[in-house]
Amino acid sequence: MIIESDSEFHDRDPATSNWAETQVLIFSVPEAGILANAYVLARPNLGVIASSIIVFQGFRAQPYEIDFVDARMHLPCPESFLDMSLDNGLRIQATKPPRDFTFSYRDTHGACSFDLDFRSVHQPFDTHDPKENPLLAVGGDDMGYGDAWANGHLDVIGHITGELELRGKRYEVDCYEGMDRSWGPREEWGGRAVSWVHIPFGEEFGVHVAMAISLRDGRIVYDGLRFGYLHEHGQVIGIVEATMESERVDMIPVNNRVWVKDARGREFVFHGSAVAGSPYYQFIPAYVCFHTLMRYTDGDRVAHAEQGDIFGMDWLGDRLSPHARVGSSTALIGG
Q1: Comparing C-alpha atoms, which of 113, 18, 69, 8 is closest to residue 279?
Q2: Angle CA(57)–CA(246)–CA(316) in degrees, nearest 5?
Q3: How many other CB atoms are there within 10 angstroms of residue 269's CB atom?
């Protein structure tokens, strides 16, 4: 179970040089086709923290087309994870840990800023608690992303409100999205691939799945649920089975079909269509994320949220480069 103290730096061996603590916020302005990501990765034993902000509108196949990126490494690490002000202009405050936070940002060069409140709509999901994650009871201890998620990890859907300013234009932010946090030893080796998906229909219902990715005959395949949950009227229920399909253009997902089965035996199917997408070459060069702002409908309900297909650069090189060792090195087929 995730508790209040999980919002702070965790106890650790000071000799563990690769200890990492992360926090990521996704937010969007769906009516404008804008998707954004604010991410931090702290290495408290080394005294440094890395942070990136990315904001883009519409479809951007190339990194040079993205509206705003501020990616920095080796910033001074804060003393506390509960209230951190970084030299890149990002401040994160836990106002009601582990559920509610404020995020504010002022680009030091004046191109972007935001002030956001994140309010959880359910208790954060603990991927490593067998009482919450039913997959652990059947030996599903591979979280699908190597050591990045192999230690402490939580995920939660929340209501995000506030304001974004992007190169002189202001936007109201009022969306539902996921936020996650992880902690433990973490090597920056890009040897895995995984998809990270939220489908939040407002206050009362939402779904999250993390799916492993494989490459078969030149196609990206989502071939295994690593963990997931749905929340309904504040109650969190683990997902026991899931499948996903997606078509893509230039590696960017442009639609998806997600089927899930929860621990109570109920089944749900969702279809998403992309309204924005881009590559995200993170501040950690070991990974690239091709992420999309998806739109889902369910009767009169509408959801907008990110699908992030995260690929390790070594994973890609092992399959698509001239020296590929895994499978075929033929060109990737869209779909």
Answers
A1: 69
A2: 85
A3: 10
Kindly report the pTM of this predicted structure: 0.93
Amino acid identity of 24?
V
**Residue 137 structure tokens:** 């009871």
pLDDT 10s digits, 197-225: 999 999 999 999 999 999 988 899 999 89
Whole-number Å distance between alpha carbons of 245 and 266: 20
Q: For residue 225, which phi and psi values (nearest 5 degrees)?
A: -70, 130
Strand partners for 173: 162
Give CA–CA dist 156/207, Å, rounded.
Answer: 10
Residue identified by tokens 């749900």 is: 268
Structure tokens at 67: 């509206």
* Distance in angstroms (rounded) separating the CA atoms of residues 74 and 135: 37
Contact between residue 75 and residue 87 where contact means Cβ atoms under 8 Å apart: yes
Contact 56, 34 (CB under 8 A): yes
What letter would DSSP give residue 134?
Answer: G
174-204 tens-digit pLDDT: 999 999 999 999 988 888 999 999 999 999 9
